[in-house]
Amino acid sequence: MADLELVQRDPQLLDAVARAAGVDRVMVMDKALGGESRSTFAVAAGDDELVVKLVPGAQRALDNQRRLVRLVGDLRRRGYPAPEYVGVGEAGGTIVTVQRRLPGQTLQRGPGLPPAPGLFATVLPSLLTAIELQRDAGEATGSPTRP
Question: Which of helix, strand or coil describes residue 117?
Fold first, then answer.
């Protein structure tokens, strides 16, 4: 979990985030972000709001995150609605990925609540289009690994 208090007190980690973002300094915003792993938080870098994800690391994790950034960039060039990654870094064994925050809202109305009735019918055409953009975009290299 991204403990904001610990992150704010770790200048090495914040320096790694700033380097990955290509800026001199970032400021942690007052909110942790949800998500499956609860390992993300928002930072301000000038006028940009960025999302930082922390990944416990080793060299393999760093290599996997760099691969992820490359694959997502390839998908974006096809028109896929994915976040723009601005960089990957490392500090004290923790890998950081930095991406621009996308506009919009979550589909979930609240913790534990299902999406609004009719929502899936509304988003299904866009979802099917996005799925089609993934065709032949992967890298089959033997057994699947999670980037």
Answer: coil
The H or E element containing residue 108 is none
CA–CA distances in Å: residue 82 to residues 23, 75, 100: 22, 7, 10
Whole-prediction pTM = 0.78
CA distance 83 to 98: 10
Which two structure tokens, joined as six digits, stand for 1? 């979990």
Domain 4-104 has CATH 3.30.200.20: yes
Single out the residue of 85, 79, 82 nearest to residue 50, CA to CA: 85
Q: What is the pLDDT of residues 73-95, one digit of tens each?
A: 999 999 999 999 999 999 888 89
Q: Each residue of 2-36: pLDDT tens digit?
A: 566 667 778 898 999 999 999 999 998 866 676 66
Which residue ranges make up each domain of the chain? 4-104
Question: Are 48 and 29 in contact, with CB atoms under 8 Å apart?
Answer: no
